[in-house]
């Protein structure tokens, strides 16, 4: 990404129609990144056509990550610090820089992306935009999530940001503590158990040097008994349709749905449509409902029909996997 001249980066782009949520093939997106951004990032001489193509590629990557192609997120607007004036050239320049940072992070999500690395590929002319975009993306968890600073990197000195008390030493609590400490906060973590980890608990079985690690929490355990594929597929479809009906109802009911539990609505809909009547069908539906409780860390009878899916936009897809040595290794690496 060459930025040594005024025409290099960012340049005024023609506005496009607003893009809504779209489905995309993650493998194809990975190939696109590898093809256009897979090499070493450095300032190099590029033609105007090359720069426009690169900017377009980075914009597509930003779309795949949930960012609008030619506008700011509501979060960016509320932050009030990313640009001095909305709608002008500075905003357009900021969007190009922001998309570039997202593309850099997406090209290798296994390594911490520093602000210094971005400055190596963007002209000093846009240093204030680099800082604004990088700080926003970092502080809001759009980049550098799932990785830790190198162990050799010292924590920044405490600033006047203040002190924070975190209740719970689970993955979320410890990760939040680590992040806040990197921002200069003084952090105290409170934990009721005599161990950290929360729902993540790995039990070692066997003798010293010869043992197996078994995760007793933080993972889904099945008994290995196969079920009929046709019934399985049908019940999964029914489960998703019931949730779709819940979302339709809450739009109609508005604020009245706040105090109604998700569990009561699902059961009433199940009875109304007469689905999952047989024992096997009901057991399969109950599995989906139990999995929904697991995902929300709460009983369906306690979940609001309005807010049960409020964290869906922040979920990440992908296959389930087992970590060699147990999930405790994640806890240990954060502490």
Automatic annotation (TrEMBL):
Q: Which PANTHER family match?
A: FLAVIN MONOAMINE OXIDASE, LYSINE-SPECIFIC HISTONE DEMETHYLASE 1 HOMOLOG 2
* InterPro entries given in the database record: Amino_oxidase, FAD/NAD-bd_sf, Flavin_monoamine_oxidase, Homeodomain-like_sf, SWIRM, WH-like_DNA-bd_sf
Q: Which is an annotated GO molecular function term of this record?
A: oxidoreductase activity
Q: Any keyword Nucleus?
A: no
All copies of the SWIRM domain together span 52-154
Give the organism the record lists. Salix koriyanagi
UniProt KW keywords: Chromatin regulator, Oxidoreductase
Protein name, as recorded: LYSINE-SPECIFIC HISTONE DEMETHYLASE 1-like protein 2
Q: Which family does it belong to?
A: Belongs to the flavin monoamine oxidase family.
Its BP terms in the Gene Ontology are: chromatin organization
């Amino acid at each position: 990404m060459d930025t040594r001249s005024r025409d290099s980066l960012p340049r005024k782009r023609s506005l496009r129609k607003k893009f809504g949520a779209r489905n995309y093939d993650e493998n194809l997106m990975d190939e696109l990144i590898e093809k256009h951004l897979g090499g070493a990032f450095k300032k190099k001489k590029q033609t105007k056509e090359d720069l426009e193509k690169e900017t377009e590629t980075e914009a597509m990557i930003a779309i795949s990550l949930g960012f609008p192609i030619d506008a700011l997120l509501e979060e960016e607007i509320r932050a009030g610090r990313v640009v001095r004036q909305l709608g002008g050239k500075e905003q357009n320049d900021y969007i190009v820089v922001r998309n570039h940072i997202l593309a850099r992070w997406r090209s290798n999500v296994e390594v911490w992306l520093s602000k210094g690395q971005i400055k190596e590929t963007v002209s000093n002319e846009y240093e204030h935009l680099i800082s604004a975009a990088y700080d926003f993306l970092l502080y809001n968890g759009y980049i550098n999530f799932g990785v830790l600073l190198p162990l050799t990197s010292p924590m920044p000195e405490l600033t006047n940001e203040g002190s924070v008390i975190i209740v719970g030493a689970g993955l979320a609590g410890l990760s939040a503590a680590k992040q806040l400490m990197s921002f200069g906060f003084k952090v105290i973590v409170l934990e009721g158990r005599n161990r950290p980890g929360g729902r993540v608990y790995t039990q070692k079985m066997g003798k010293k040097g010869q043992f197996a690690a078994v995760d007793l929490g933080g993972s889904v355990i099945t008994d290995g008994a196969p079920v009929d594929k046709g019934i399985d597929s049908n019940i999964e479809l029914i489960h998703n349709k019931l949730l779709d009906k819940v979302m339709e109802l809450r739009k109609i009911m508005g604020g009245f749905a706040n105090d109604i539990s998700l569990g009561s609505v699902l059961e009433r809909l199940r009875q109304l449509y007469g689905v999952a009547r047989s024992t096997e069908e009901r057991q399969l539906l109950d599995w989906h409902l139990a999995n929904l409780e697991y995902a929300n860390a709460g009983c369906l009878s306690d979940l609001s029909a309005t807010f049960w899916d409020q964290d869906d936009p922040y979920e990440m897809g992908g296959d389930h996997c087992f970590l060699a040595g147990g999930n405790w290794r994640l806890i240990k690496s954060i502490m």
